[in-house]
Amino acid sequence: MGPLTLFTALVLSLCCHFQCASAWTVNNFLMTGPKAFLTYASSVQVGARSGIQECKHQFRWERWNCPESTLQLSTHNGLRSATRETSFVHAISAAGVMYTLTKNCSMGDFDNCGCDDSRIGQTGGSGWIWGGCSDNVALGEKISKQFVDALEDGHDSRAAVNLHNNEAGRLAVKATMRKACKCHGVSGSCSIQTCWMQLAEFREVGNYLKMKHEQAKKLEMDKKPARAGNSADTRGAIAHAFRGIPQTELVYLEDSPDYCVKNQSVGFQGTEGRECLKGDKNMSQWEKKSCRRLCYECGLRVVEKRVEVVSSCNCKFYWCCTVKCEKCTQVVTKYYCTRYTTGRKPHNQTKRRHRLRRGRL
Ligand SMILES: *[C@@H]1O[C@H](CO)[C@@H](O)[C@H](O)[C@H]1NC(C)=O
Ligand SMILES: *[C@@H]1O[C@H](CO)[C@@H](O)[C@H](O)[C@H]1NC(C)=O
Ligand SMILES: *[C@@H]1O[C@H](CO)[C@@H](O)[C@H](O)[C@H]1NC(C)=O
Ligand SMILES: *[C@@H]1O[C@H](CO)[C@@H](O)[C@H](O)[C@H]1NC(C)=O
């Protein structure tokens, strides 16, 4: 595979994630030269993918659940929406790329980067000095900018919003970094500690950006003049709209469509058929609300499905050395959103129980 083929593959796959329009410049990537490109390309791809995986996790019990189809379809129509959800996709992808590259540096995967040793040996605070391997975000940040921001070829408000959200994603990686320390001193007295800055788990970056998604700010733009006017006017209008919005906050331009219903033009299937959770298990607030948000509030009802799960159980240890287990069949109840069948009243036990539950909500 020649450099350009691999290059094109990455570009296309990133394109899917970032909803970029079909026409965009390959030249942006080549500025650093094909060799530098190839060094980082696979890590960039891994990073972008981990961003999308995290997106799917964070939105698992939401109406919009980060489906591949909403990320891809827009590529084909050249339709690029800038909703609250797209803002999250941009931020988490830029963060994923920066995060992966930074981990790569700490692991010694690249020749030209490693731990941040600039402060090693210096006093950090009372009772501790800098030591260990501080994660060095500089290269990851730079490569994330070069690769991810290069996907924006326009100079309109949409491009400005996407770039802003990419940057918010990278800031999230820095904002969630933590100081980790190790004790030293006679017999673990911890009279002196060495500390270093390390990346949080990527899950934590996801949680942080999910919160930013909830607080995302809508950018008020005059749409008409920006399109027809000269570029100085456009830049002025964009700068004006961004005034007072901190770089850490996610921004969007358009209200989200109704994610309850199937919408062909945004490639969204609606919530019919989606699984939701019930029961008094140890659930997060999102899980607890899932049936209400996905089914009831979307005018759907919940059906129970009983699924048999076979697992090992009653294991006994026999001297020596075998473990024998029985096979147990467990019936697990799962819940799914389904449409009301018009004209027929729910009349059987299962259905009545659901109605009672619904009444409680
Ligand atoms: C960077 O890290 C990712 C994830 O850990 C890994 O898949 C990838 O191979 C690494 N890149 C290099 C060049 O080692
Ligand atoms: C589909 O989404 C588009 C874009 O948000 C919106 O304009 C349109 O009204 C939606 N269609 C339906 C059927 O909800
Ligand atoms: C519920 O989850 C929390 C946090 O995940 C945990 O600390 C707590 O022990 C759990 N409680 C039960 C009853 O499992
Ligand atoms: C009662 O309703 C449930 C849920 O729709 C369905 O799965 C079940 O087959 C029905 N039972 C009878 C006896 O109709």
UniProtKB/TrEMBL annotation:
Q: What GO CC annotations are associated with the protein?
A: extracellular space
Signal peptide limits:
1-23
Protein's UniProt keywords contain Acyltransferase: no
- Indicate whether Translocase appears among the record's keywords: no
User: Which key words are in the record?
Assistant: Developmental protein, Disulfide bond, Extracellular matrix, Glycoprotein, Lipoprotein, Secreted, Signal, Wnt signaling pathway
Write down the Pfam families for this protein, in alphabetical order: wnt (PF00110)
Q: Where in the cell is it found?
A: Secreted, Extracellular space, Extracellular matrix
UniProt GO BP: animal organ development; canonical Wnt signaling pathway; cell fate commitment; embryonic pattern specification; neural plate regionalization; neuron differentiation
Q: Which GO terms describe its molecular function?
A: cytokine activity; frizzled binding
Family annotation (PANTHER family)? PROTEIN WNT-8A, WNT RELATED
Q: Which family does it belong to?
A: Belongs to the Wnt family.
Describe the function of this protein.
Ligand for members of the frizzled family of seven transmembrane receptors.
Query: Mind telling me what this protein is named?
Result: Protein Wnt
From what organism does this protein derive? Mastacembelus armatus (zig-zag eel)
